[in-house]
Amino acid sequence: MDRIDEFLKSLLNKTKEERDLLREKEHVCPSEETIACYLDNLLNDTEREKTEEHLAKCEDCLQQTILLHGLKKEIIGNGYMAVPTEATELAKNIVPESSVTSLINIISEFVGNTIKAKRGYRLVSYGSIALIVMLSVGIYSVMITKDTTIPYDYDIYNTRGGTPTQLDELTGQANTETSLELSMNIIGQRKDTDGSISRVTIEEGSILQSGDKFKVQFKTSKDAYVYIIIHDSLNKANLLFPDPGIKLSNNVKANSSHTVPAQDRWFWLDENIGVETVFVLASESLLDNINALLIEMEDADEPEKKVMEFVKDKSSVVRAISFRHIVR
How many contiguous H segments (helices) and E segments (strands) does the chain have? Predict the structure, then answer.
């Protein structure tokens, strides 16, 4: 664990009373450049101390910094971060692929004064520039993701459904030997500060907030046994459907749409922020050892690979949607 990790963790351990006491002082939030440079260890001692003093008393900046620190480590570990195609197209309009020089010049011009220091321009790394872009325009990558066509319509909220990602495309593993087809959507609901309820479009790479609610909708081309698993930011894998506490059949009929949970019930997001993934598995036969898969997913660095290994040679198919969970 590096020094920034230790510092951010120490702030999370502070009690609510301690944070409220620190917040009583009037303060000005640091710029995007400052946060990015802090995470890239580019601040001098005085600037770093001032930034950390602010993070100790500003909950919003602390949560944003924790999120960006996690994003940075994920990018370093994976080399990229997948995003919806719409965001990628926006990135193409802002950042041409011609050269790093053009990249820096255009981003500097786009961000404007946020990248300027009083003594002139601060020399920042590519990682810092990427973080500034994330803060300023909400672009999380320049990698195109395949937009999978949903083979059926749904109009519960009169909005476009999610974009399922085929896990075999992500992991390079082959499809299982089955003619079974599966499609999925995630539909969401958010309670706004004024008490009104708004719809949330949940796609691959979407950003959701603690307290948001969601349902999973799916359809199979053949009679099948369906399982829904969520892998959360704490590396916990839980079976959402069939509900382990209720003895209901998960054997669904072909070409019929199903929504889980049904009627006016919803799944909801707790306070544990991070990346979460919803997996939908469909199999022509009953999967008796699904609990063993949950355990293997929690022990794995790449749980999606465990899912693909599990369904291999089982006449099964998998779909998944990942989203980023942040604090409200």
Answer: 11, 13
- Residue showing tokens 């998998």: 318
Of the candidates 35, 126, 31, 127, the one whose C-alpha atom is nearest the C-alpha of residue 72 is 127
Locus of tokens 């022509």: 284
Q: Residue 311: helix, strand or coil by DSSP?
A: helix
Q: Would the pLDDT of 276 be above 70? A: yes
Q: Do β-strands 258-260 and 316-326 pair in parallel, antiparallel, or remain unpaired?
A: unpaired
β-pairing, 206-209 with 316-326? parallel
In order, the DSSP letters of 38-59 are HHTT-S-HHHHHHHHHHHTT-H
If you average pLDDT over residues 198-219, what whole number do you get? Answer: 92
Residue 220, H or E segment? strand 213-220
Cβ contact 285:144 at 8 Å: no
Greatest mean pLDDT range, 33-42, 90-99, 170-179, 268-277: 268-277
> Residue 73: pLDDT band by 50, 70, 90 thresholds?
low
Q: How far apart are CA 156 and CA 133, in angstroms?
A: 34
What is the spatial distance between Cα 72 and Cα 83, in angstroms, rounded to a whole number? 15
Identify the CA nearest to 287 among candidates 224, 244, 240, 233. 224
Contact 193, 169 (CB under 8 A): no
Residue 77 tokens, joined: 């570990």
Which residues have a Cβ under 8 Å from the Cβ of 227 and sit 6 or more positions away?
239, 241, 242, 250, 280, 281, 282, 283, 287, 290
The domain spans of the chain are 3-137, 167-326
**pLDDT value for 291:** 92
Whether the CB-CB separation of 161 and 187 falls below 8 Å is answered with: yes
User: CB-side exposure of 216: number of CA atoms within 13 Å?
Assistant: 27
Pick the CATH number of 167-326 from 1.10.3720.10, 2.60.40.2550, 3.30.70.20, 3.10.450.50: 2.60.40.2550
Closest by Cα among 165, 167, 217 to 188: 217
pLDDT at 285: 93
The DSSP output letter for 23 is H
Residues in the chain: 328
